Amino acid sequence: MLLDPAHGGADTGAMLDPATPEKTYTLALANQLRAALGSRGIRSIFTRDSDVALDSTARATIANRSHASACIVLHATSTGNGMHLFTSSLPAVKEADPRRAFLPWQTAQASYETSSLRLESDVDAALTQQHIPALVARTSLMPLDSMACPAVAIEVAPLDANTPLSNPGYQQKIVDALDAALTAWRSDWRQQP
Ligand SMILES: [Zn+2]
After folding, report:
1. Which structural domain range is residue 21 located in?
2. What is the distance between the alpha carbons of residues 128 and 134, in angstroms, rounded to a whole number?
3. What is the overall mean pLDDT for the chain?
4. What is the structure's pLDDT at 98?
5. Ligand 1: centre distance to CA 95 (Å)
6. What's the 29 CA to ligand 1 centre distance in angstroms?
7. Cα(65) to centroid of ligand 1, in Å?
8. Which CATH number covers residue 158?
9. Distance separating alpha carbons of residues 154 and 107, to the nearest angstrom
10. What is the pLDDT of residue 107?
11. Number of domains in the chain
12. Which one in 98, 108, 121, 130 has a CA-CA gap of 20 to 30 Å to 168?
């Protein structure tokens, strides 16, 4: 798995509460997810594993060198409810011809959209099982558009008015849902020719 905790360094992202910048939350969530996947023997590669600034090109470069079965971009927000799932809004093109080694960088994701939408629907189903509402949308977002892998951007919002992002039980449900979806995804992926 490729996990991309959004923001970092001087780019703090949103303030989720007075003490928690988004950059800290996304890295903590990625660490929890890495631990869960690791307990199943699934390795995660991070675009950043410390509080450093990283531009979209650097993130996409790490993602595209990882040859990961899935790339997950993690954001968080204090507005809205549940999880917001985004796939790239680039117009889909046919799967890349393997003889063409170089994909156009800015739009590399266009060749992966069918699998990205499948990945998104697997994540959506796992969230439903955990009773976490999810909104599904398409957007043009870096580094998502440049990722050459099945890729979904996930923005975590509070579950409801009484359950903020910092709620440990909610965090655990999020991790359990993503862990379940990504574990199933990876075993499907390996069975493909
Ligand atoms: Zn963000």
Report:
1. 2-191
2. 8
3. 92
4. 55
5. 29
6. 13
7. 23
8. 3.40.630.40
9. 19
10. 87
11. 1
12. 121
